[in-house]
Design goal:
The protein is built from 5 helices and 7 strands, in the order βααβββαβαββα. By secondary structure, the chain is α+β, with helices and mostly antiparallel strands. Strands 1-2-3-4-5-7-6 form a 7-stranded mixed β-sheet. A hairpin with a 2-residue loop joins strand 3 and strand 4. The longest helix is centred in the last third of the chain and has 14 residues. The relative contact order is 0.14.
């Protein structure tokens, strides 16, 4: 099992993009082309591949000592088999000196998927993340940042995104 960088010419590209479209609502999906064309290793799409089969993927944006998971999905038939934890472990090995961030939706009582949100938070807690004090709103949803390998504050989070928007003027986040 390995994490493999995926580019526009990867033999796994179509399969991973199909998983991306199945896993995220249309209003949350963004054009991944700027990430796929980035040759700096700052921004990367990594596929979890085993025996030539795509098990899942993760998209990370990197700057200084922060690696921010912005998309993360496991093929439905492989969920609850430890592959998500394996990806997290492999990310930590790939970026041992970075704080790793993950966005999670707040488990608000009136939301229609509170169990899924709590499950997602518990997944990150089991994998060495902790809740930070950073909260934000995106697309009318409230999110919190979970972090492994350190902590983060509002200013660092804001500075990170300022850098991303400056680097990728074509991002629409």
């Amino acid at each position: 099992m390995r994490l493999e960088e995926i580019g526009l010419d990867s033999k796994y590209y179509d399969e991973i993009i199909a998983l991306y479209k199945r896993s995220f609502p249309e209003n949350e999906r963004r054009d991944l082309t700027p990430i796929l064309k980035d040759e700096s290793d700052d921004d990367v799409l990594l596929g979890l591949i085993d025996n030539d089969e795509v098990l899942g993927f993760v998209v990370l944006l990197n700057h200084n000592d922060i690696a921010h998971i912005i998309y993360f999905a496991i093929e439905e038939k492989y969920r609850s088999h430890g592959y998500g934890s394996k990806i997290i472990q492999m990310i930590k090995e790939r970026y041992p000196d970075k704080r790793i961030l993950a966005d999670v939706e707040e488990p608000e009582e009136d939301c229609d998927n509170i169990e899924q949100r709590i499950k997602r938070i518990n997944f990150y807690l089991r994998n060495g993340f902790k809740k930070s004090d950073v909260y934000y709103e995106w697309l009318d949803e409230d999110y919190m940042i979970m972090v492994a390998n350190g902590d983060i504050d509002d200013k660092e989070f804001s500075d990170f995104w300022d850098y991303i928007y400056t680097k990728h003027t074509d991002f629409n986040y």
